[in-house]
Specification:
Length: about 450
């Protein structure tokens, strides 16, 4: 469902749509009057687009296709959107007039556009073009002359992604892993100046997180991931990065800045704190929850996760989250939670916490390892699983099980494994290749062929 939340904290959130199918993504027009959201039917992932006034009302369906929409953006005039999609045969990009429904293909053949962003004047479209698994580039296409293209790609073996325009349209920020860790790049549009924003040891910018600009284009705000937690920082263009902004500890995502540059909103969660939207007043230490923090569940019974490291077969250090069992008689059984992806991460977030708590509340200790291939630990570590799925990453999990068996509270004869998607595949591989290690396994929505 979609809710409207007043930023003055004086009113409760208001639900503005209805229906049985979940809404995946919503984008508000720049004038704030309307939004467009993605919605599929019964989880078929063929997302149709719907137009809805931000104060609620009857939605208008804009598309009726068998194509899968990947990304959309509003033109600054609020009368047009751009949509990227993939069909059974090819990707595409099209422009749609909201009032008339007229659709115009932007470029043929079309790049595989994973995200789209109009320039502030609406003349250019910046996007991430996925050329291969490990080579993505930034394309900037002239909206009125699609043959006029600017490309930013630092090498053929690196990823450039998630462009965002400065407020004055003179620069873009994007993410690049060319130097071994995903970091922010500031690029002068149609110019030569390029700045890689520095990282400290073991830091990486989270995948798919947009950099936002101040209204004066003199400051960027972005997220930093380190060992499964994220922080947000401000970075003046002509100075060094500032300290972490005062959001709660855990995982942050979906940062937005108000037009006047006075407030930033962010989605926060941790393994012991459900998702909530928080508002930060720029220049202060004031952070306030925008969404209610009362729940029909006693959070105090949940165990706090422990951040741990263990050594794998090749002496590589593997990071993991460990959650002891709640009110269980020792020694108690344990499980390994294998995350999806495989280019994913078990982070200090409510989503991953749910899986660990599911085991913990039922009397199991649980370890969530970030095996090789996981995000957040550098390009070399992430790419180690290419051509080796179910090899070194499985060994990392096996050594996680050995770590569990060495914990005094764990029954070493009762170690299980579970996961979904790639984690479901990993469960099946583990039970097939290493049946002597695991007493049981639960494979959810796995890849099986």
């Amino acid at each position: 469902m979609i809710y409207s939340v007043p930023v003055n904290l004086s009113q409760e959130p208001k639900q503005i749509n209805s229906g049985k199918d979940p809404v995946m993504i919503a984008r508000i027009a720049r004038d704030g009057d309307n939004l467009i959201y993605f919605q599929d039917e019964d989880g078929n992932e063929i997302f149709q687009l719907y137009l809805l006034p931000t104060d609620g009302g009857t939605p208008r369906q804009l598309t009726d296709t068998d194509q899968r929409t990947l990304a959309i953006d509003w033109h600054p005039n609020g009368k047009e959107i751009v949509r990227s999609y993939v069909s059974r045969t090819a990707p595409g990009i099209e422009i749609m007039d909201i009032d008339t429904g007229e659709v115009l293909p932007l470029k043929e053949p079309s790049p595989l556009a994973m995200d789209l962003h109009y320039s502030p004047d609406g003349k250019w479209l910046a996007l991430t073009n996925m050329k291969s698994l490990i080579n993505t580039e930034i394309l900037i296409i002239n909206r009125d002359d699609p043959s006029d293209i600017v490309v930013y790609n630092t090498s053929n073996k690196s990823e450039q992604s998630i462009p965002s325009w400065s407020s004055d349209g003179k620069s873009i920020a994007y993410l690049s892993n060319e130097k071994g860790w995903r970091q922010v790049v500031l690029q002068e549009f149609q110019g030569e100046e390029q700045i890689f924003l520095d990282l400290e040891e073991d830091e990486e910018v989270p995948e798919n997180e947009t950099v936002i600009w101040s209204p004066n284009s003199d400051i960027v705000y972005y997220l930093i991931s380190k060992h499964g937690r994220t922080t947000m920082h401000s970075h003046p263009i002509s100075d060094s990065r500032g300290p972490a902004l005062p959001f709660p500890k855990g995982t942050l995502a979906s940062i937005k800045i108000r037009k006047d540059g006075k407030f930033i909103s962010v989605l926060h969660s941790s393994m012991v704190s459900p998702y909530g939207v928080y508002l930060y007043e720029i220049g202060s230490r004031n952070v306030s929850p925008l969404t209610p923090r009362e729940f029909n569940f006693e959070l105090s019974i949940l165990k706090n996760p422990l951040s741990v490291w263990y050594e794998s077969f090749d002496s590589r250090k593997i990071h993991a989250w460990y959650m002891p069992a709640v009110n269980a008689k020792e020694p108690y059984p344990a499980t390994i939670y294998s995350h999806g992806g495989p280019w994913g991460q078990t982070s200090d977030s409510w989503l991953h916490g749910l899986f660990l708590h599911l085991s913990s509340l039922n009397g199991f200790g649980t370890l969530g390892p970030n095996f090789r291939g996981s995000l957040g630990y550098g390009v070399e570590f992430q790419y180690l699983d290419i051509g080796d799925l179910g090899g070194g990453d499985l060994e990392d999990i096996i050594h996680g099980a050995k770590w569990l068996k060495n914990q005094p509270e764990i029954d070493s004869t009762k170690i299980g494994i579970f996961g979904r998607s790639y984690g479901g595949y990993m469960t099946l591989i583990a039970l097939t290749k290493k049946p002597e290690i695991f007493a049981a396994g639960v494979s959810m929505v796995p890849v099986v062929d």
